[in-house]
Amino acid sequence: MRTAFGRLLGRPSDDLVALEEELLLADVGVKATARILEALTDRRSAREPVRATLARVLEEILDAGPDQALRLDAEPSVLMFVGVNGTGKTTTLAKLAARLRSEGRMVVVAAADTYRAAAIDQLRLLTERAGARLVAHQPGSDPAAVAFDAVQSAMARRANAVLVDTAGRLHTSSGLMAELAKVRRVIARAVPGAPHEVLLVVDATTGQNALEQARVFGQAVAVSGIVLAKLDGTARGGIVIAIREELGLPIKLVGVGEGLDDLVPFDPRAFVRALLGGSE
Amino acid sequence: MFGSLAGRLQGIFRQLRGRGKLTERDVEAALREVRMALLEADVNFRVARDFVERVRGRAVGAEVLQSLTPGQQVIKLVHEELVELLGSREARLDLGQQVPAVVVLMGLHGSGKTTTAARLAVHLKGKRRVLLVGADVYRPAAGEQLEVLARQAGVPARVAQPRSDPVAETRRFCGEAAALGCDTVIVDTAGRLHLDEELMAEMVRLREELGPRETLLVVDAMTGQDAVNLAEAFHRRVGVDGFVLTKLDGDARGGAALSLRAVTGRPIKFAGVGEGLQALEVFHPERMASRILGRGDVLTLVERAQAAVDEQTLRDWERKLRQADFTLDDFLAQLRQVKRLGPLEDVLKLLPGATGNRLGEAKLDPRELVRAEAIISSMTREERASPEIIDGSRRRRIARGSGTRVQDVNRLLGQYEEARKVFRQLARWQRGPRRQRPDRLPRG
Ligand SMILES: Nc1nc2c(ncn2[C@@H]2O[C@H](COP(=O)(O)OP(=O)(O)OP(=O)(O)O)[C@@H](O)[C@H]2O)c(=O)[nH]1
Ligand SMILES: [Mg+2]
């Protein structure tokens, strides 16, 4: 990687320098940028503008094929929302609940953030708005027990999906990561094959640390996909390229606002176009 | 925090130090690495470029290259420029004379405004009588969250009703402050995007109508390249007096810290360093720069040690260290002590050189302590007193006896060795911690 970067810094052509700057400013990161530009150098051709080739390289990295879609076939499908503090887990969960409801599915929501002040109140309000059913215990109670109850209740009512909200936690806190792993284990024991999705919600303004988040959460709870929240700001969210490239995790959903309908499926083309400034 | 950057720079500088003479090309190569390290730490692309340019401008000057210790000189330059970028002095909260003094917290969604509001109230306890005001009328249960935190902080709170006019409400609450016996109002506002014209206008109105003494922008330490955009936008549109950098207890390298000041000229005043309401520290630029360079945040450590460990214990350590009879028993006792200073990993991160050595890497959790206890108690008294006699066969015996693996024993002995070194330094600083500045400490 160092040689690639060194080579590029050595005597690169102007357009590569400009593209490098754009990628770095989009939070793609030094290493991923170096690898991407290396791939770009190999694939450049006189027939195609270099930006178009770059877009193709990025889209290929991001394209997860059949893994792009949420896994919602099982009955009930259990989806966990995890991530560091304040990334948008609860809002994303509510957005998805609203979407599933609008498709006529029955949704149970588990208030497994029993830690943050008023987290349960927030979730209750959002869940009501989305028209889903909330399973909650007291603040401070065992999050795994809440998740278990929610799953049981979903099975009893033949609900289609269980969405589990969890407390934000820094991945560096090993105790809290162990707690999260326990929530996952309890769910796995309650329903064979569950959780069907463990979604890591990443804030689009986050820089290189998101890669570490994905790695550590991935190890602790086997993250199955990324939700990129808050892409409606000026941040480009390029770190998901590094996450996809390095860890192979698919990006599944994108949050584009605070409203319940501000959630869209991840579209590699649209994402890359926005990241490269839309222009050719 | 800044862990990797510190490690990287240390590596770079170790190489530089190994050389007797530096050519301009050597400096170029090192600066390229510095730039990469800065970018990996989320320092903004342009800020990093300017930073490296400044260092280059000074480094390529004659004195540096011709000095006897060019590597040292470059390190010194990088350190100086880092401090320059972070601000050379601590910037305290300035509440002025007028009552009530109003502090407004603003920022993007999820940056940590509400928690910071409650922490500031705790921070000011004993000095000021704080009223917490919730002006987030958009996010569901934002008011409830602030009320719960205010109860925990032991201060009164007033929150605007959902969908009410937050500016009018806040003004009303400020009017009530005196009657509630409060001389300080801390206002928690809704998360907002700097692109959101309507919400930015609301913020401007709030600032105009309340005339806050301090308007602080709360920024997540994990923020990437966008930090410059948001800082610039909030500063231009609303005006920023200072920053609070949150979630610094994670492993974010926190390059945003470097960017914020570079683009606004405003200082970082506080850092959020944990989950609890106590976890707010005055931001120390110099300590941060030292930490980036891997010299360890000795001042913070000593302050915390003084708060948590009683004098007698410290004197005991010191005496033992001076007499160089720091045994494994002492090590165990100290592991237990250190536990009281806060999460062990946090403490270890403060130690000089901790980024590069085994001590820094060790993720010591409580289980680790149990294991350490088991290993040490499986040693003979002789082994505990003179660990150097513990050879391969003794290690195997100890591992068997403690139900651990030989690797565990090796690791513990390695950590003990590191600790012996570090605590010996600690004891030295202990004699004059308050007077000593980090830049006079021996270089790691
Ligand atoms: N602009 C914008 N704001 C968002 C988006 N998603 C969430 N938010 C806002 O971000 C803030 C935090 O969102 P939450 O859903 O509470 O985040 P969380 O991860 O559950 O937070 P904790 O549970 O405290 O860790 C709220 O103000 C949300 O309205 C998004 O896509 N765009
Ligand atoms: Mg939440």
Explain what the structure shows.
The complex is a heterodimer of chains A (280) and B (444). Chain A folds into two domains: 61 residues; 203 residues, 3-Layer(aba) Sandwich (Rossmann fold). Chain A is built from eleven helices and eight strands. Chain A starts with a helix and ends in a 5-residue tail after the last helix. The N terminus of chain A is likely disordered. Chain B is of the alpha/beta class and 444 residues long. In chain B, 56% of the residues lie in helices and 9% in strands. An eight-stranded mixed sheet of chain B has the order 3-2-4-1-5-6-7-8, with helices on both faces. The N terminus and C terminus of chain B are likely disordered. At the A-B interface, helix 1, helix 2, helix 6 and helix 9 of A face helix 2, helix 7 and helix 10 of B. The complex binds guanosine-5'-triphosphate and magnesium ion (MG). Magnesium ion (MG) binds next to helix 5 of chain A.
